[in-house]
Amino acid sequence: MRVLLVEDERRLSGVLKKGLEEDGFAVDAAFDGEEGLFLAQSEDYDLILLDVMLPKMDGIEICRRLRSQNVKTPVLMLTAKSQVEDKVAGLDSGADDYLTKPFAFLELRSRIQALLRRSRQEPSPLLSLADLELDPIKHKVVRAGRLVELTPKEFAVLEFLLRRKNEVVTRTMITEHVWDYNFEGMSNVVDVFMAAIRRKIDNREAVKLIHTIHGVGYKAGQL
Ligand code: CA
């Protein structure tokens, strides 16, 4: 899952980015409104966290422009202001939810999960494939009743595959959704992660759930 964080308070931005990355999100941070709008228009995000009071362009204006350009990415507004009229303006501009600062990280996290679920119209947060189950909220993976320990990045890669189960995903799709725009890793980084994930998920099972599609990428599914 890839998140755009538009927040001019560097410390808060740093704390949020770190927390979200620990949850397996890839986070691009923008520190003013113009940069935020530019990234939101040019990259493909699963969610935008948008501060209202920003230099150069405020969050309400950014949201309004994105919606008028038919960018439908869910937007969660963050603001220090708690007045009712700001909330109304934020939601009128096309934001999906609103969080007033200061907020607890746990609160942010549960709002994010609720928004992502709503935008995908999923009745249940659980992602499953045969006897493999991934819970994005509890950050838990179970294969055949056995708890599987994954690092945050491994978890993010597996979540990405399971959200597109039975579809072939390319290495580029995976890197774009799981790593942020500063990423300049080796081209085989996805293969390294996939090998680790398969070792943990598939190695001891008769039925393999993650497959290499030669020359293209990977697929989570049953052959
Ligand atoms: Ca601000």
Can you tell me about this structure?
By secondary structure, the protein is α/β, with parallel strands linked by helices. The chain has 2 domains: 2-119, Response regulator (Rossmann fold); 127-220, Orthogonal Bundle (Arc Repressor Mutant, subunit A), CATH 1.10.10. The chain has 8 helices and 12 strands. The chain has a 5-stranded parallel sheet with strand order 2-1-3-4-5, with helices on both faces. A 4-stranded antiparallel sheet has the order 6-7-8-9, covered by helices on one side. A hairpin with a 2-residue loop joins strand 8 and strand 9. Helix 2 (33-42) packs parallel to helix 3 (59-68) and helix 6 crosses helix 8 (189-201). It is elongated and about 60 Å long. 33% of the residues are buried. The mean pLDDT is 89. Calcium ion is lined by residues 8-9, 51, 53-54.
Q: Would you tell me which CATH topology of the largest domain applies?
A: Rossmann fold
Strand/helix succession = EHEHEHEHEHEEEEHEHHEE
- Could you tell me the number of beta strands? 12
Strand content: 15-25%
In CATH's first tier, which class of the largest domain applies? Answer: Alpha Beta
Number of helices: 8
In round numbers, the mean pLDDT is 89
Q: Ligands bound here? A: calcium ion
Chain-wise SSE layout:
Layout: E1 2-6, H1 10-22, E2 26-30, H2 33-42, E3 47-51, H3 59-68, E4 75-79, H4 84-92, E5 97-100, H5 105-120, E6 127-129, E7 132-135, E8 140-143, E9 146-148, H6 152-163, E10 168-170, H7 171-178, H8 189-201, E11 210-213, E12 217-220
Parallel strand pairs: 1-2, 1-3, 3-4, 4-5
Antiparallel strand pairs: 6-7, 7-8, 8-9, 10-12, 11-12
Helix pairs in contact: 2-3, 6-8
The protein binds calcium ion.
Residues 8-9, 51, 53-54 line the site of calcium ion (CA).
